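Practice record 12: protein with zinc ion.
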Amino acid sequence: MKNVVVGIDIGGTNSVFGLVDESGVILSRKSIKTDSYDQFELFVEAAATVIESFKQEFPETKIVTIGIGAPDANYYNGTIEHAANLKWSGIVPLRRSFEKRLSLPVVTTNDANAAALGEKLFGGAKESDHFVVITLGTGLGSGFVVDGKVLYGKNSFAGEVGHMQFFPNGRVCGCGRRGCAETYVSATGLVRTTIELFSELMIDSPLRDLPTNQISSKKVFQAATNGDLLANEAFTRTAEYLGQILADTMIFSNPDTIFIFGGLANAGELLMKPLKVAFEKRSLEMFKGSAEIKFSQLPEADAALLGSAALAWEEFHK
Ligand SMILES: [Zn+2]
């Protein structure tokens, strides 16, 4: 029997399941619609059906652990706590419900920490014990590995860079405060910056012809690659904000590498070039040149799944 794990990435819309071996090969992959299960118990039942189907599909394998990455998941308690993007309100007993239903060890963490573990086991951080993974999606997520271990802190919520107050009286954030980093550095932050630039700059741009609710990060990216100066400026500012944030993360975690991951990372050099300039400029003298910024080396489509699988393997080897 070959040992395998199940990685589960629970997202607001879809939940993806993968049967993953120790080298990070996804033997099988399935998904269910998270948002069609109003009751968490019914979701667990549907998930169990998927996992049973993996067993039938690969009878020569033995599932040893289940790793679950989910928004606002608590590593210590195995719970999802007050997740804004999920239908299940309050505190959801994620680990306990899965363990009870499937009689297998289950481990949980939030998606950014899972991404960091994925980078360590299967991506570009195999040789590193000090690195940061920044996920640039709808929000700004971050996972820290310090001295070889994921940083969890007292309540498992350490290293949430996205909610550091970047501009104290700045943009309103989903968390209820103002000026959090993710309101500037994320796909939605880029769009908000673009809209602000309409009034700040006297530059023509095809983006001005769109209703504001139809401006997306993808459209800003397309405009920028077509030479639109306003769209370019939106990217440059986003990169400069991120450069400043990363310069500050150096101060408390001293990584050798910072990996950038998520939808906005697809902007490539449009983001990376000004980011590197800003990072060097903003870094404290003692940190200048000591860390490299790179794009994640996990395939984007599978990164969350591989992160959850990496979490499961790490638990299995403990
Ligand atoms: Zn916030």
